[in-house]
């Protein structure tokens, strides 16, 4: 038995489930979950004012680890996209977006142990540049470990000068192999292979 809530058929109760959308009008379709929202275009918008501590949307799995699934299934598409979009009233080069990986510490406090963040280097229309930062927590402080920008990849530096720039104290680069095969090949097609520099570029 279904109960239609308005004459346009936008809301429909069926078997303890709620369907929202014109496809449920007159019982033509039945909601497949406790809440099933279906419509052309944007089917649902959750809008609120956060204080920085409480999320606008909280999805919780009380039994296992499978918390969320985002699925794209339009015929002919080659993939699916999930976007994190920061949309302030005025665009600034200080705008950024974050993806935090959080678990509790020994005191039960929610702690960010890893983070991927995107920042703007240049937000000029048609010449935009950005960078992606990978951070992990060290002694309770979130510390940047790697940065990718328009120049290259920086490990231990936030300003890579080449395609791959590694900087830091102690050993910087190590390659191990245990099967007896070649472990490193450096190939140059047009000229000099490498410069090895010591203190004072000597």
Please outline what is shown here.
This protein is an all-beta fold.
Give a written overview of the molecule.
By secondary structure, the chain is an all-beta fold. The chain is 0% helix and 30% strand. The protein has no helices and ten strands. The chain has strands at 2-4, 11-14, 17-20, 35-37, 96-104, 110-122, 129-138, 141-148, 153-155, 164-166. The strands form two sheets. A six-stranded mixed beta sheet has the order 5-6-7-8-9-10, with no helix packed on it. A hairpin with a 2-residue loop joins strand 7 and strand 8. The mean pLDDT is 87.
Number of strands: 10
Q: Give the spatial strand order of the biggest sheet.
A: 5-6-7-8-9-10
Q: Distance between termini? A: 85 Å
Q: Beta fraction of the residues?
A: 25-35%
Helix content percent band = under 10%
Tell me which oligomeric state these chains represent: single chain
Instruction: Sketch the major β-sheet.
Output: 6 strands, mixed
Mean pLDDT: 87
What is the SS-derived class?
mainly beta
Order of helices and strands: EEEEEEEEEE
Q: Give the CA-based shape.
A: elongated
The residue ranges in which pLDDT falls below 50 over 5 or more consecutive positions are: none
Q: Radius of gyration, Cα only, in angstroms?
A: 26 Å
Supply the number of helical segments: 0
């Amino acid at each position: 038995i279904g109960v239609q809530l308005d004459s346009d058929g936008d809301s429909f109760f069926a078997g303890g489930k709620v369907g929202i959308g014109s496809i449920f009008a007159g019982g033509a379709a039945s909601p497949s979950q406790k809440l099933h929202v279906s419509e052309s275009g944007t089917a649902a918008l959750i809008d609120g004012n956060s204080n920085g501590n409480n999320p606008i949307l909280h999805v919780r799995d009380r039994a296992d680890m499978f918390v969320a699934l985002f699925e794209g299934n339009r015929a002919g598409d080659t993939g699916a996209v999930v976007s994190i979009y920061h949309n302030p009233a005025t665009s600034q080069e200080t705008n950024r977006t974050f993806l935090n990986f959080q678990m509790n510490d020994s005191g039960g406090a929610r702690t960010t142990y890893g983070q991927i963040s995107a920042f703007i280097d240049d937000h000029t229309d048609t010449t935009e540049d950005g960078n992606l930062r990978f951070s992990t927590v060290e002694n309770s402080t979130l510390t940047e470990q790697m940065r990718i920008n328009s120049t290259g990849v920086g490990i231990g530096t936030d300003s890579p000068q080449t395609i791959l720039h590694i900087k830091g104290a102690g050993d910087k680069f190590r390659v191990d192999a245990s099967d007896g095969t070649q472990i490193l090949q450096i190939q140059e097609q047009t000229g000099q292979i490498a410069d090895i520099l010591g203190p004072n570029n000597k």
